[in-house]
Amino acid sequence: MEGSPIPVLTVPTAPYEDQRPTGGGGLRRPTGLFEGQRNYLPNFIQSVLSSIDLRDRQGCTMVVGSDGRYFSRTAIEIVVQMAAANGIGRLIIGQNGILSTPAVSCIIRKIKAAGGIILTASHCPGGPGGEFGVKFNVANGGPAPDVVSDKIYQISKTIEEYAICPDLRIDLSRLGRQEFDLENKFKPFRVEIVDPVDIYLNLLRTIFDFHAIKSLLTGPSQLKIRVDAMHGVMGPYVRKVLCDELGAPANSAINCVPLEDFGGQHPDPNLTYATTLLEAMKGGEYGFGAAFDADGDRYMILGQNGFFVSPSDSLAIIAANLPCIPYFRQMGVRGFGRSMPTSMALDRVAKSMKVPVYETPAGWRFFSNLMDSGRCNLCGEESFGTGSDHLREKDGLWAVLVWLSIIAARKQSVEEIVRDHWAKFGRHYYCRFDYEGLDPKTTYYIMRDLEALVTDKSFIGQQFAVGSHVYSVAKTDSFEYVDPVDGTVTKKQGLRIIFSDASRLIFRLSSSSGVRATLRLYAESYERDPSGHDQEPQAVLSPLIAIALKISQIHERTGRRGPTVIT
User: Are residues 214 and 246 in the same domain?
Assistant: First the structure.
């Protein structure tokens, strides 16, 4: 800390009308918008900082991290300069700006920070032509609840100025403390650059039996694994935790160098985009495979020969095997949470364990109240996200370590574990069809007309014959959620059609991006008989899909011949 105090400037600006966070305090837009539109990023950052009460903001500590995508370093510099000017006392930042979303949640909770800012667009592509995002996590480490997101949006619509210290420069590569003297500030502004993995790794050590996992990966019956970080944030975590700490060979980890454009790929861990891992697993050399998204909160599990574990099955299997984890043996199991579109496989496990299941809208923020109040300690979503109350975010690496713990305890392969689960609880055939990049007006009218159709009383009892299948409508609704903790009501969270055989169709608009719309169609069918457990999900679900397409007219009204992505 040398020289004259750094000046604090107030810069005039004008509001943008499109800065409504799309859930969890996040704003996701094309990178070019953040780069090219004057004050677009400063406006949103000021709105986030101003949403924190002044008495809580002055001198507080916040955490800042990114998934390493293009524009992150520039954005971090702006966040630092504005945090200093707005009275934040200390920032904790991952070295080189890198921090996974689970690690940010971990650090917020560990040091009791006021919140955190995560620069990520999750599983969306990076680079100049990709997407960029800003996400705000609150003091419990979880995504901002809707009341905070609404406050951010209201501020963004009336913003007239923002505060910044444009001459403040930090060295993201140098571990340790950096202090800065600011004009009209009594205390120096402090930045601490930390190892992105260490604090999070220490938490994982308290949850898992690392000795058992290390024996699995290094012992005489060594399980060969293949883990794909997809050139996102998880590279350093995979190398330090799975390779250095748990003994997996260095060549078990691939695509572990974070790249600004993720190597030109979608950092999305599913069968459509994680093809490098899928092909490696199909060869039969590896017994366990996993991939992570850009910011490390989502994951995919594959078994030998490319055996795919659906996210809903993964959640249910984790729930059924929680005694394999020391953390749950000590803490017990209080309840489970799942998003409404997630399959009901979890519910069958919960019933057998006599614990409640809380069905929420899509979005991890809805689980935070449940976990904070002690109602549940395992939650999951069909979008490849699972986590427990050790954090307030979904956690990809945690889920992978759970799976390795289950394999170590049961001494079975991934496929054997899944098939045993199906034999005990039945199989929930499940698919999600994403229609991406649609015109928002078109999707609005599709959903409006669908809601009018399926919520009309005359729709109940209707029968749909497709081939040899006849489906009778038992129940329909527009899903709404009443938070059992604070009574908050969240409406219009998707349209549900439940048939007499418990099959389900769900239509939902995704709010993850504000530029074009994504319409999601979910289909689920239950099969108890083990002789029916070896069918292809899309073949089993094709009659339901035919019904969905007929009543929604998605293809006719969008001009699409099929979905963009099927998971």
Answer: yes
Task: Report how far residue 326's alpha carbon sits from residue 324's, in angstroms, rounded to the nearest whole number.
Answer: 7
| 3 state SS of 60 | coil
Tens digits of per-residue pLDDT, 372-406?
A: 999 999 999 999 999 999 999 999 999 999 999 99
Residues 65 and 159 in one domain: yes
Q: What is the pTM of this model?
A: 0.96
Which tens digits make up the pLDDT trace of 197-244?
A: 999 999 999 999 999 999 999 978 899 999 999 999 999 999 999 999
The answer to whether residues 138 and 56 touch, using CB atoms and an 8 Å cutoff, is no
Please say whether the beta carbons of 78 and 44 come within 8 A.
no
Tell me which residue range forms the domain holding 323: 198-423
- Supply the pLDDT for residue 515: 64
Give buried/exposed letters for 131-160 (b at 16+ CB in 10 A, else e): bbbbbbbbbbbbbbbbebbebbbebbeebe
3-state secondary structure of 535: coil
Token output for 563: 């979905």
Contacts from 442-451 at CB under 8 Å and sequence distance 24+?
Answer: 442/517, 442/557, 442/558, 443/509, 443/517, 443/519, 444/517, 445/557, 446/519, 446/552, 446/553, 446/554, 446/557, 446/558, 447/495, 447/507, 447/509, 447/519, 450/495, 450/507, 450/551, 450/552, 451/478, 451/495
Other residues' Cβ atoms within 10 Å of the Cβ of residue 280: 17
Element (H, E) at 443: helix 440-454
CA 112: distance to chain centroid? Answer: 22
DSSP H or E segment with residue 386 = strand 385-388
Q: Tally the domains of the chain.
A: 3
Four-residue CA torsion sign, 403, 405, 409, 412: positive
What is residue 104's predicted lDDT score, i.e. its pLDDT? 98
**Closest of 502, 351, 326, 478 to residue 430, by C-alpha:** 502
Give the whole-angstrom CA distance, residue 18 versus residue 15: 9
pLDDT, the chain, mean:
95
Contact 267, 294 (CB under 8 A): yes
**Which residues carry out catalysis?**
122
CA-nearest of 311, 267, 276, 272 to 100 is 267
User: Per the domain annotation, does 2 fall within a domain?
Assistant: no
